[in-house]
């Protein structure tokens, strides 16, 4: 039976939903920290922040905002204002008591160690794939607050199955060790094996770590439309586990598109918010399941100049390769950050490495401002974006050619 998407909420309905479902008495007198995504997620953050601020600021003792950057670059004051829909001129007058906090994943002094996942824990949760002790670290500023409120969308996700919920703590505002551990665990399972799957070992790791947080956790999760307009199909509030679970069920209806047969060529267009391969890789993750063996996926991003601001140097050393390229040469690569290796194999997709020869299932090509010599260096194909006419790829599904005009958030699967 085909499931139909729920209706789209109006702005008034969103505000009323928040006023009805977030009890003022539950927040009265509390020091509140909102944990929100950066600008690489489609979300109506101006509407949600305005509604939450007007509803809760009069009763809480403080209300600050932390950007769950993971390892993404920090945002400027102006960028955060734009993200939240705040007029910069109004910032000093209306929001002077609200602190904006960029997470600092790479600053040990900014982190608090909550505990450790034991070898027994990691063996059990990974089904024996990994066995190691992993410290659980988080931004230490959380202890300045009485309640942490995650405000973020849920989408199919290449590492954890579906994004959102406690993922805004780990890796959103976490230290690098746990991030590297569970990203590599996701890579071992593979993108195709984990994306769009609700119950995954990586989600178990995230939830296990979140239980160590000594501050009360809540989440306002939501599911946006698949047309890129950031309108909402649904909202859920409660514990991060429950709110995420409900949103993931709705995301599975909203964000997964099933097709009858694979495509030999996919033009996967990166939106402007994907300004480096580190995030534009989502254009591959969401479409890998429907690219035919030996086919080509083109990440079309004429605005993109960077491989990764944070991790570019390491990626250029490692390159993009299938999982087995790393696992069968583990002594050569195990000292690199596992999160970088995971990103590499997620972008490159499935393949084999036998007798020193790598055979990837799909050709991944960049059509961006990244020069051809860099693309070859990192083991990706190159196309000059100026030679691509998007419309030449349109309406050719019967020929085995697929155009996705805003890629990265809707997952494509075979029926």
From TrEMBL:
GO terms for molecular function: lactate racemase activity. Gene3D superfamilies: 3.40.50.11440, 3.90.226.30. Residues 29-185 form the LarA-like N-terminal domain. Pfam families: Lar_N (PF09861). This is LarA-like N-terminal domain-containing protein. It comes from Caulifigura coniformis.
């Amino acid at each position: 039976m085909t499931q139909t998407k729920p209706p789209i909420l109006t702005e008034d309905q969103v505000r009323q939903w928040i006023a009805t479902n977030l009890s003022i008495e539950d927040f009265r007198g509390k020091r509140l920290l909102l944990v929100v995504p950066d600008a690489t997620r489609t979300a109506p953050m101006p509407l949600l922040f305005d509604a939450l601020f007007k509803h809760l600021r009069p009763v809480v003792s403080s209300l600050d905002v932390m950007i769950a950057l993971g390892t993404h670059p920090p945002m400027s004051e102006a960028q955060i204002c734009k993200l939240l829909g705040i007029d910069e001129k109004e910032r000093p007058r209306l929001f002077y008591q609200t602190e904006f906090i960029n997470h600092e994943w790479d600053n040990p002094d900014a982190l608090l160690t909550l505990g450790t996942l034991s070898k027994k824990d990691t063996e059990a949760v990974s089904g024996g794939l990994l066995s190691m002790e992993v410290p659980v670290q988080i931004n230490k500023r959380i202890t300045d607050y009485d309640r942490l409120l995650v405000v973020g969308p849920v989408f199919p996700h290449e590492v954890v199955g579906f994004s959102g919920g406690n993922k805004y703590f780990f890796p959103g505002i976490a230290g690098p060790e746990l991030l590297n551990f569970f990203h590599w665990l996701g890579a071992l399972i593979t993108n195709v094996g984990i994306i769009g799957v609700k119950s995954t070992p990586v989600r178990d790791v995230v939830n296990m770590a979140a239980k160590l947080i000594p501050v009360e956790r809540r989440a306002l999760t939501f599911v946006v439309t698949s047309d890129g307009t950031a309108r909402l199909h649904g909202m859920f509030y409660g514990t991060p586990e429950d709110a995420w679970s409900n949103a993931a069920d709705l995301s599975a209806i909203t964000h997964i598109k099933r097709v009858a047969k694979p495509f030999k060529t996919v033009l996967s267009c990166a939106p402007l918010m994907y300004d480096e391969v580190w995030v534009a890789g989502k254009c591959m993750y969401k479409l890998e399941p429907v690219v035919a063996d030996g086919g080509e996926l083109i990440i079309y991003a004429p605005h993109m100049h960077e491989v990764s601001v944070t991790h570019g140097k390491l990626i250029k050393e490692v390159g993009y390769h299938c999982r087995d390229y790393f696992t069968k040469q583990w002594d050569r690569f195990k000292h690199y950050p596992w999160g970088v290796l995971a990103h590499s194999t997620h972008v490159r997709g499935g393949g084999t490495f036998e007798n020193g020869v790598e055979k990837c299932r799909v050709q991944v090509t960049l059509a961006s401002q990244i020069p051809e010599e860099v693309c070859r260096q990192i083991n990706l194909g190159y196309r000059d974006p100026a030679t691509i006419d998007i419309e030449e790829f349109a309406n050719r599904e019967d020929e085995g050619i697929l155009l996705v005009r805003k890629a990265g958030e809707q997952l494509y699967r075979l029926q």
